[in-house]
Design brief:
One of its GO terms (cellular component) is mitochondrion. Keywords: Coiled coil, Membrane, Mitochondrion, Transit peptide, Transmembrane, Transmembrane helix. There is one protein chain. By secondary structure, the protein is an all-alpha fold. Helices cover 81% and strands 0% of the residues. It has a domain of 41 residues. The longest helix has 130 residues. The radius of gyration is 71 Å and the shape is rod-shaped. The N terminus is likely disordered.
Length: 203
Amino acid sequence: MRLWSAVPRVSVPLGKPAPLLLRRGAHFDSNAFVQRLEHAGITRQQADVLVTALTDVINESIENFAQSLVRRNEAEKHSYTQKVDFAKLKSEIQLLERSDFVLMKSENERLMADTEKIKQRLREEIARTMAGVRLDLNLEKGRIRDESSVHALKIKEVDTRIESEIAGVRTSIQSAKFNVLQYLVGVATGAGALLLAYLRMFR
């Protein structure tokens, strides 16, 4: 009966050391695995061949996996490089943010100054317009006042003329009344004299 050692058999070329993982010992219990295969009905020779092939496959897979791994110092170096790059990127981003903030602040201050200038110009324009409107209103009020004075003077002149005309008409009426009264008195006196004469003639 053949006994299996705990260390798998590895064929290593001359002049080359065995891989690190393969020198650490077996990765499974080959004797127990052979016994399981024999209990399953496989002969000892076939079980030996299967275990050998399986051991070679496992060792080759682990060796390939080990070659793809990164050593701790290299991983730490890579991590440190990433940290340095990240810190550099972070400082650049902060610098850009600070620069953008300063630029935005200066732009905001410029816009505020322009807005204040526009407000001041608008206030001056409104004040100038209001002064012009007040001047026009005062001039219009003065013109209306002058026209009202002229109209009042004309109305007063017309009233005076009307009163003088009315006084003249009254005088004419009074004179006409006086003349009519004189004429009526004369006519009445003549008629009375004729009537007395006619009465004397027929007595």
